[in-house]
User: Fold these one by one.
Assistant:
Number 1:
Amino acid sequence: MIGCSDKLTQLPPYLFSRINQLKREAFTKKLDVIDLGMGVLHHPTTHRYPQAKGMPKFRRTAADWLERRFGVTLDPEREVLALIGTKEGIAHLAMALLNPGELALVGDPAYPVHRNGVILAGGEVFFLPLRQENQYLPDLGAIPTAIAQRAKLLLLNYPNNPTTAVVEDLTFFKEVVAFAKKYDLVVCHDNPYCEITFDGYVAPSFLQVPGAKAIGVECFSFSKTYNMAGWRVGWMCGSERIVGYVEKFKSFIDYGVPTFLQLAGVSALQSPLAVVAETVKIYQRRRDQWVQGLAKLGWQVPTPKATMYVWAPLPERFRAQGSLAFAERLIQETGIVVAPGVGFGPGGEGYVRMALVTHDHRFHDALLRLKKFLRQEPVSMPGSRGPGGEPGAVAE
């Protein structure tokens, strides 16, 4: 069974975590608690230090949402952890689990923190190719046995950023659970786009697979579903053991999500489903407008079933110059910003990611600018960098 990193083992239990636990027990016993510590539980304001694991109300509400949405039952006390956004949670998971030189399996291309979090933890990355011909799913059977035996962590993300790929049912996740059990590794499924889906597609949860909770965790975000990107709030849930490692790590380096933001998250999760449906309707309208508009210009791109992105192969005439040079020239000559695919890993070369996050009328303006741009001859951009350059500075 995978344990935490050596550095985390060397740390004693965080003092204030124990004090907070005793304080909660005192409240439960109806004691008249005079709090001269630093907690926030039952305080009339929301401006004191929060608990690193998240307030009980937030964790209960997140667990209730998971059960309503996916039929997944969780213990909010031990299996749910508030995050300062899933980006933070994934990076801290890598730091809590990995010792220097230990291996993580990461998709290529992938959301940058999947790779960068491992590197910052001192771990090594083994890239799993995500290719269109395989529906952007990793071929677990193609992973060399020696690599699988060394691996300690597998990072996944469906619906996927940047490729927009989805899993149609639980078949792939069942393969993942079997693979993780065979090689004794931890799975983290990053699932912030599960509610941004189109054309009747419904995204599953990794935790719906029997046995998944024993070997993995799943991360959820308010950024996309509820348009709360700058609020920095999300949660991790699943294995009590793994959630506990991350909670311990976080207790030494941050105080958790501000209480008023957790309460905002509670309100969001308890809001009517129509709120999210309206957001999805807007994204779908923009998706259709953009994909159809590009097609009229001769730029054929796949229509995504989920996420707020379009993963677009470079037009044939521009592929030789690479995604970064293309993106640089596009912004310099037209003011249109896209994320170069190489920023998401070497496997992203040849693509750009476009986000459906601007006003509707601006897509019309962008198409007018692209019409002229795409008629030009490709040119080399001095100083442009390809896959070996600096791919990290992309929009998230």
Note: The two ends are 33 Å apart (CA to CA).
Number 2:
Amino acid sequence: MVNDTASSPFLSIRGLRKTYGSAVAIDDVSLDIRQGEFMTFLGPSGSGKSTTLYIVAGFQDPSGGSVQLQGRSLLSVPPNRRHIGMVFQRYTLFPHLSVAENIAFPLRVRGKGQSEIAAKVKAMLKLVHLDQHGERMPGQLSGGQQQRVAIARALAYDPPLLLMDEPLSALDKQLREEIQLELRRIHQETGITILYVTHDQEEALRLSDRIAVFNQGRIEQVGTGRELYEEPATRFVAGFIGHSNFLPVTVDQRDGDQAQLSLPDGSRLSGAALRCHARTGQKAALMVRPDRFRLARHKPEHAPGVTVKVRDLSYLGDALQVHIVTPWAQELHVRQPLSPDAPCAWSIGDTAQLSWDIAHSQVHALA
């Protein structure tokens, strides 16, 4: 639902900085969001994602930088006049008002007429699939239903921008996944621009058009889920998005943006993509995703191979997670798909040959 026709960004964040005395919460955060985009701020606790969201909402003042919505500066506009919808982790519904009255509240505050309010409430209830729940009280609803009411209320007055701060973190896994699907549907049906904050990488990958990965107050990388997973720009992104193995290597030779490497057992590798400024002779880390590894009984002919021991096995339903140990005593994780035609072929204590396609691995700086 992204609108690519606009010549200027719908929401523009430039050089945003926020300090608390000598502590820096965010530093030089810059980002452009397109109209209709679902943009997620992803990162660990304290990385600056919520602080950035609260500055856009007007709940905090920045120490520097600018925020413009549709070409107009927001920083001098009070929060209640920014016309921005907000959904929090806690549902913040009025317990003494019915579902319909909760949704109607922001419309009444804005002085809308009774017929317009009734029509909008009906439309919002239908949008969030709560058509038959308008007369119920919030306490009579499940957590997922209450969060859908909060979303309906935030959308009722047609804000151009919806901000969502960890809205699903209080829900259990199954319910969280159900509401994620609802959010995808609502975004597709309404075309509203959404800024979404989460620390859950799987949630970010499932929901987003693009993801901004935050770390220590800065944005490390912005991209689609596939771009971040397949082409992480930094060691932090490589470790935070998806599960990664980092093998210790020495850079033997550089050839443009690729390198020849040595593993601790002396095995030589060539053609790995460089994602750092490692010099010849320098130690680095080779990232390989668990699903990119292959285990076999015999050494492969045309791929790097290492003899490993199977240390443990974890059955995950559709896949098997194999914990292996290398000759240099490093534990690695391998994820192998399972099917009736391909049952588990390994036992604890087995010797195996570990291989992978070097084109799907990258050289990053040491942590």
Note: The mean pLDDT is 91.
Number 3:
Amino acid sequence: MTATLKKYNLEGEMQGEVPVDQRLVDFVVHSQLVKDYIVALRYNARQWSASTKTRGEVKHTTRKPHPQKGQGRARQGSTVSPQYKGGGRVFGPKPKFDVYWKMNAKEKRAAIRALIADKMREGRVVVLESTQIDAPRTRKVAEFLEKAGLEGKTLFLGEGTYVEIGFPGNSQKLSIPSDIHTTFKKSVRNIPHAGFMLVCNMSGYDVMVTQDIVITESALKELQEWLLRDGS
């Protein structure tokens, strides 16, 4: 059983429909799994490098700011106290390097698959025939978005280039740099509400904050192989 996605060329003309596995469209997970994935993704993106100085680390004179008695003021030991400007910070942030939020690869894939499925059910995913363009032309991409009715934040997804290394029966596919989308990326980068990335670099957060997704046919096949590789 298959579903279909609308297919366009770069001129914004509809070229028919592309079949997509129904299992990808119908996939649903508990909302808590998606929430945990997004929280972990944002949590792990933080640098955790904020660092403040305590009163023992601040360099100031050790002289008392004013006499202990005789002036009617509260006694003060030194200007490194927190109440003085430039003094030490009480319970301030310190660098943290052991706060990584671990999440299983299957859970990550399930969350991304569920977010993609939501977009497909809403009709927010369309297929682009090709990203091949002879020279960077921002106007052409902008006109495509207008003709296709994609007015919100749009994410373009392209296929990657891979090589297999290893021995027969025990090989591994690795992504390598390629310039097949270079011209198209230059055409997209000056459009404020549009962006481009490879399917292999996509995260669930990118899908969540995007209103519409435009994916190439080759990238769609790559996406289905990745999300449906466990057979479910």
Note: The longest helix spans residues 105-121.
